[in-house]
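=== Per-residue structure ===
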Amino acid sequence: MPFRKREESLRSRAGRAAERGFHRLDERLPAADAGKLLRKAFPDHWAFFLGELALYSLLVLVLTGVFLTLFFDPVMAESTYHGSYGPLHGTRMTQAYASTLRLSFDVRGGLLIRQIHHWAALTFVASVGVHMLRIFFTGAFRRPREGNWMIGVTLFLLALLEGFCGYSLPDDLLSGTGLRTADTIIGSIPIVGTYLSFFAFGGEYPGQQIIPRLYTVHILLVPGILIAMVTAHLILVVFLKHTQWRGPGRTNSNVMGQPMIPQWLAKSTGLFLIVFGCTAVLGAVAQINPIWNYGPFRADQVSTDAQPDWYVGFLEGAMRMMPPWETHLWGHTIMWNVFLPAVVLPGVLFMALYAYPFFERWVTGDRGEHHLCDRPRERHTRTGLGVAAIVGYAVLLLAGGNDVIAFGFELSVNALTWIFRAAVVVGPPLAFFLTKWICLALQRRERERLIEGDETGLVSQSIYGDLSEGRRAMASRERHTLLARSDPDPLEFGPAGAAGLSRQDRLRAALSRWYYRDQVEMPATPEQREKIAALNAQPHD
């Protein structure tokens, strides 16, 4: 009995202490609101983990990058190498290259960490790109997430810059060839190009300042901006809540899924361990960027078969396909063959990415909030544009290795270049129309299934000898998904007709009709349409 009273007394005191501690914590931090965050619902579809794949790749990059920073020396002063790698004994090289060799051959685990870092960088850029494709094809960039889309595009741009800076730091012959290309691109900018090149390289190429400056940008400037923007991106995700696929019970006013604790946390932790484990295995068994094979950078030498990492390979391909156009004015040369593919093209590409949510809203006239994802086949024009862009990028990427392809398949480089020139013009429009045709065919097939049902594989014969195939009604969950989509109507001319509209309004109406033309209407009853409209119009809590 005394032990029970003592136990109850201890529990009571512990409870009061915990309550006092919680109140004191809540006075300083929003502890009372943390419970809502811990019970936040996360959609459990695999596509929503692509962003987390990018996040955990960035985490691996930070962890391995801290280790590499302790041993890398970003100095361009030259000395004679006498390290562990015998074939380069007595070779003059910069401290940057020598420290990378020392990191690879003399530091325990250094080569493994280097390769994990490089593989994680490729995974990070790829996962950011695929995540953006998911956002684009499902329409998750629409109101109220335009700002988050722009943050994502900026993150992708910063990831490209961060990758290029890290790729250039070892100062080997391959990365030096890339820096030579970068110097040419900077110098191609009219009027200010030469000044920008001198500023970046600390003098005439190759200069003595480019590696230390890239090092500062790589470990301090860009990572700081990346982490800040990732934090802002995640805060907006929590504030605006997740989009979700359509389904029974899912509307614009709720999010159905699994809570953060414990289901989402367990899955997310498992994903992080998978990312770290896969990059570690790749770093251990798959060699990447063996700088000792290339040797130190020499301004009078160029690495053969020089290929950049895949994420900037499209720029290399664009420059290789561009005709040798130049203009000479007042003693100055404007290199259109470099300026257009390497400066104008990526500028136009990223401006289009930034502006697309606002362009689609202007064309469609759709200003409502959207928290339910589109199925790509239901937005055939947007899906066609996305696939056309992917095909164009793929052609440019392949063109960046036209010399390697020509050597491997014993083809003419000139003939291959002309093939790629034709493909980059013909390929994207062809991909657009083919994708649109496939999307509309899939819509017609779904309409047929809604009307006639699914085939059972059974054939019956009437007493009169007629044969008919057996069909069953579509499952209610799938039927709801097909019928609960929102199809905005194309913008129409006003009562005054085309003559009463401005040129901009006529253009907008024409683009709107083009955007929604040929859309297949699903066989929903008026009552079902009213219910669908009510669900789609509900605000998001």
Q: What stands out?
A: The mean pLDDT is 86.
